[in-house]
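Supplementary material to the annual report.
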Amino acid sequence: MEREQIKSALESLLFVAEGPLSLRRLGEILAGAESKEIAALLEEIKVACESVGRGIRLVEVAGGYQFRTASENADWVKRLYQLKPQRMSRATLETLAIVAYRQPVTRAEIEKIRGVDVGAVLATLMDRRLLRVVARKDVPGRPFLYGTTPEFLETFSLNDLSQLPTLKEAEELARTSPTANLPAPENSEP
Amino acid sequence: MSFRVQLEIFEGPLDLLLHLIKKNEVAITDVSLGAITEQYLATLELMQGLNLNVAGEFLVMAATLIHIKSRMLVPADDADQEQEEEDPASDLIQQLLEYQRFKEAAEQLQSREQLRRDVFVRQEPTVENNEGVEFERVSLFDLLSAMRDALAKLPQEAAHEVVLEQASVRDKMSFILDHLRRNGHVLFQSLFGAATSRLEIIVTFLAVLELVRIRALRARQDTHAGPILLELAAPLDAGGGLAQKESEETDGGTRAD
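Predicted assembly:
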């Protein structure tokens, strides 16, 4: 296959795909194309998308490639789908963060960190398929161990968990006043 | 001493403590737990005064703080020093530091480009879209009044004369078969032209279905959504046999009259 043909095929595949397409999957479909070449072509598409005036971006997320709308067009897309602005509550985000960094983790361990009951939040996050039960802990009661899902990576535009920013070290936090350099917490949430 | 506390929505006692520490502009490790305890209790009192539902966790933390404060008032003796590892104050500080780390991590998650908030992918599952649509809750009374409206819109017929309609599936089957014997075929749609009532249309339709079911006739359609042509399925020289079959099959309960 010609280089341009492959590039064109890649665009079509990414356009119709429902989820991120991994390099391996693309290689399987475009049999005969080397994955090194595919990667280079994807990079070309990515760069082309980032040029001024384009409304689509090619992003690497959850171990694959996916076309996404440019973030500056969010308001228009929401209008198309009549979506209400979706804001995750602080309870949701804190619980997600704890699971993301500490997984696999039990409910009791999450509650110890947050200092409050997280049963309802966990249930919601499981419903939204951002978290899942990955195993049971081998302690009395055999509690569930929670972990994040590929949907979590997709939602937060992460390619894999190693892309999460490193947690601040405790000593570092101890030296600074809490959240002094961060914007005031949002109060808009019910 | 009077406090002016602007109430925020606190995620829990740790969140409230961090908020108070921040207001005091000190590092978590340098905080005076005595002062913080007073402010914490004052906030709790305010929350209760406002009839806010103060969750049990807030009260547990209040007890912990008072316990820590009381320990600080009592001069440390040797026994206490041996138990230093169990110092509730340093436990609490550790817990606050830990919570602070994840609070910041949560804020970083929040600031990331988020799917379905900042960016979108094609083929949003329709389920997701529906979730965005809020249906209003309706009560039983709403339903009742909606029904009353619907009934009111019905045309009022002052009097209705009831006549016994003489339409049975069997009669219609015979009628259709007779017609086919004479003409060979008939347009499905044309069967309803002469119908004078809703019941007759239904009966005619049932008759056609029954005839197709017993394979007395065939229905054909040449184009999608085009006219449907009905024709006899078998040659009629054995007409008696067919009639026999027809009556056997229909005695079983397809009477619609």
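Residues 191 and 226 of chain B are 16 Å apart (CA to CA).
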